[in-house]
């Protein structure tokens, strides 16, 4: 949840392009897109120095934000970058958020009940 809150804070503190409105899983959302400058800035925040990048092949990030409560409902990332080393890296993901702030019933699997405590190794 902390990562979700950080991502939402990042969203509130950047300029994005509003592409329109769309319904995701029955929720009316704003569809907003991150531009290439924001993506490069975000990558720098993640420790990927632009001096390491040879070229940005493609970079698309779209967020769907609930109009009623401001929660992120869905995000789509499609980023392809070539580093000066020649390595090509692709990020392609779709995240869908459901049941935000609802308590989840999680049952410990039987094989985990008898697991060895390894916390002392860290």
Task: Explain the overall architecture.
Helix content is 20%, strand content 42%. By secondary structure, it is of the alpha+beta class. The chain has a five-stranded antiparallel β-sheet with strand order 1-2-3-4-5. The model has no long low-confidence stretch (mean pLDDT 81). The chain contains three helices and five strands, in the order H-E-E-H-E-E-E-H. The longest helix has 11 residues. The chain has one domain.
Radius of gyration, Cα only, in angstroms? 19 Å
The total number of structural domains is 1
| Structural class determined from secondary elements | alpha+beta
Oligomer class: single chain
Largest sheet: 5 strands, antiparallel
Encode the helix/strand succession as letters.
HEEHEEEH
Question: What level of helicity do the residues show?
Answer: 10-25%
**Shape call:** flat
Tally the beta strands. 5
- Please give the count of helices: 3
Share of residues in strands: 35-45%
Low-pLDDT segments: none
| Alpha-carbon distance between the two ends | 23 Å
Average predicted local confidence, pLDDT: 81
Walk across the major sheet and give the strand order.
Answer: 1-2-3-4-5
Blueprint (SSEs and pairs):
Layout: H1 2-12, E1 17-24, E2 27-34, H2 36-45, E3 53-66, E4 72-83, E5 88-96, H3 110-113
Antiparallel strand pairs: 1-2, 2-3, 3-4, 4-5
């Amino acid at each position: 949840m902390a990562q979700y809150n950080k991502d939402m804070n990042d969203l509130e503190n950047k300029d994005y392009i509003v592409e329109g409105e769309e319904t995701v899983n029955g929720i009316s959302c704003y569809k907003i897109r991150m531009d290439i400058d924001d993506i490069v800035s975000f990558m720098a925040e993640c420790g990927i120095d632009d001096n390491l990048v040879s070229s940005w092949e493609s970079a698309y990030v779209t967020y769907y934000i609930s109009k009623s409560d401001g929660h992120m409902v869905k995000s789509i990332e499609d980023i392809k970058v070539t580093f000066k080393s020649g390595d090509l890296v692709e990020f392609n993901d779709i995240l869908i958020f459901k049941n935000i702030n609802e308590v989840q019933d999680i049952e410990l699997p039987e094989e985990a009940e008898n697991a060895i405590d390894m916390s002392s190794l860290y």
